[in-house]
Write a structure and sequence with these properties.
It is a single chain. The protein has 214 residues and is α+β, with helices and mostly antiparallel strands. The chain contains three helices and eleven strands, in the order ααβββββββββββα. The longest helix has 22 residues. The radius of gyration is 21 Å and the shape is globular.
Amino acid sequence: MKKLLLLSASLLAALSAHATFVNLAGSETSLQQIVAGTTINVTNDQLASDSYFTASSLTGAMVIEIAGYAPNNSFGIYKQGSPGTTLEIFSGAAGAGATTALISLPMGWSGFGFYLANTSANFVWYSDASLNAGGMLDHFVTYQGIAGQTMTASGITFGTNDYLIGIEDLNLGDADYNDMVVKVHLNSVPDSSATLALMGLGLAAVVAVRRRQK
């Protein structure tokens, strides 16, 4: 009985760690073709955990959007623990090559996920799959780009802390994850201990100056 339980646990662990299936068949440009020119393998190189991220600010670049819902799509981020609190990055008007200015994360956002919403088609998909209808389908696959590598078709080059997000917009999904593909650059959240240390040094300098003045 103990062996059976151990086997079941191992099987569940293997299943949970298995990469999201990406369908490379069909007449459309596949996700693997979109990343051509880089060493990304869209099956093997998925981030193990892409539900939530942390950053102080970010920028976005639209790589491609071939979704039928494109004119009414909204892509952005939502606050971890409060999926109704959102910040749009791209509206439906954005096309391939569109970029954003620097977007600062609001105060109090300790973490965030990505969403794709469409009011006309009445859906909102979250990078945290447990928030999606039925909690079954993962509508996002994410890859960390290798700095200096360029996607041939789009001419977009990866830098440090750049991530590529492929999105499936259909309810049941055809699993191609090429309906919208976005590159985002995440700026790290400042280290609080380092910040406090700098504040301490600044305060010490002020005290020293005041002592000299006296």
